[in-house]
Design goal:
The protein is mainly β. The strands form two sheets. Strands 2, 4, 5, 6, 9, 10 and 11 form a seven-stranded mixed beta sheet that branches. A hairpin with a 3-residue loop joins strand 5 and strand 6. The chain is globular, with a radius of gyration of 13 Å. The relative contact order is 0.32.
Length: 118
């Protein structure tokens, strides 16, 4: 079993930055892929950024060049650095983990709200 606990998020003005964190506990060594998803009101949940074993990275086109996904040396904490935030980035953000290298996996964080507004 894997547990994911998120932190970060909040209210920021357009052009600002935020960093989300996702701390994994439990069977961390079993995790083969992790990612961030978001869901805006009235929209489907979408993959924002993902990382898998071997350093494979994937970003949604809408966040390329602005968001950066990373994991710490222990591989137990995942980050999402969000720069140059736009109003359309407003959503609930969720971290996700999978044991087989395919996202979305079965493990989800509790979600955190990001609001970009002036």
């Amino acid at each position: 079993q894997v547990q994911l606990v998120q932190s970060g998020g909040g209210l920021v003005q357009p052009g600002g930055s935020l960093r989300l964190s996702c701390a994994a506990s439990g069977s961390i060594s079993s995790i083969k892929a992790m990612g961030w998803y978001r869901q805006a009101p009235g929209k489907q949940r979408e993959l924002v950024a993902g990382t898998a074993s071997g350093g494979v990275l994937k970003y949604a086109d809408s966040v390329k060049g602005r968001f950066t996904i990373s994991r710490d040396n222990t591989q137990s904490i995942m980050y999402l650095q969000m720069n140059s935030l736009k109003v359309e980035d407003t959503a609930d953000y969720y971290c996700n983990a999978d044991r087989f290298g395919i996202l979305p996996g079965v493990y989800w964080g509790q979600g955190t709200q990001v609001t970009v507004s002036s």
